[in-house]
Amino acid sequence: MSQFLNKLSPLSDFPWGIVLYTILILMLITLFLQKNAGLDITLLISSVILLSIVDHVATTSGSGDYSGNFFAPFMVRVAMFVFPLVTAGLTKAEKSRPTAILAFVVALGYWILRYTQMPK
User: Fold this and answer.
1) Distance CA 91, CA 100 (A)
2) For the chain, what percent of residues have pLDDT higher than 70?
3) Would you state the pLDDT for residue 61?
4) Exposed/middle/buried for residue 45 (C-beta within 10 Å: 0-12, 13-18, 19+)
């Protein structure tokens, strides 16, 4: 249990942990700004929050992959930048769009930087 809690620290994987927690916080703000969000928007936002935690805990070892598998983190990170963009397009709450778009930009930058580090 203590290993899991140590991996949850944003400083355990220094630059990437902070980026992932930034995405998480932006999507939490987006979730709280929703007035009458439907189930689809709530699930999209919640899945980004969950995927950012999963990605952080699973890749804290430093290699950036899930035990040698590079397809799983690739797809998790794609979902992490596509879902905020879909959320920004679907939401009726105008106040939540800027935070969702900012989360999209940060997640896209995270995906590009982590993709360039994967061995080809």
Assistant:
1) 10
2) 92
3) 66
4) buried
Q: Which of 100, 111, 92 is nearest to 45 (CA)?
A: 100
Cα(54)–Cα(56) distance, integer angstroms:
5
Residue type, 95: K
Distances (CA, A) of 85 to 4, 23, 70: 30, 13, 24
Rounded distance, CA 5 to CA 100, Å?
28
Domain limits of the chain? 2-117
Max Cα separation, the chain? 44
Determine the average pLDDT of the residues in 46-57: 94
